[in-house]
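sorry for the late reply, my laptop died twice this morning and i had to redo everyting from scratch. anyway the thing you sent over, i finally got around to it. pasting the sequence first so we're on the same page, its 153 residues, then the predicted structure underneath. double check i copied it right bc i was rushing
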Amino acid sequence: MIFTDKNAFAETLPDGGVLIGLDLGTKTIGTAFCDALWTFASPADLIRRSKFAKDKAALSAVIASRPVRGIVIGLPINLDGSESPRSQSSRAFARNISDLALPILLWDERWSTQAVERAMISADISRAKRAERIDCAAAAYILQGAIDALVRD
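ok and here's the structure:
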């Protein structure tokens, strides 16, 4: 099932559990995991995109590495709240992986990459290191926002 409502998503996971967060880019997929109690999110593996079948196989392998109970996908929304072609691409990706039999939450990711990049610049991380870490850090940022909202209610 694919959800945009965090409460409906949470109802499918009454005991919590490990979640994977995804930041979908055109060239990469950043991944992150949170703990089973939904306390903190940490960056994980970077998947270099190619054909969808290979992307899905790589994602399945990352998911199989942990006892994942659900997926949080960043949904790129415009500042005015409208959706863009990238939003539709994220929705299509969610539909295409829905056969993994895990609940999927589409989470508003406005400003995630910019916030992470600002934090990395403040930490004086070089441009080259930022480029290789930004997508997974953005996935962790997206996932952290979602789990913070999930445990607040």
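Helices lie at 6-11, 52-64, 85-97, 112-122, 127-152.
thats about all i looked at so far, will dig more tmrw
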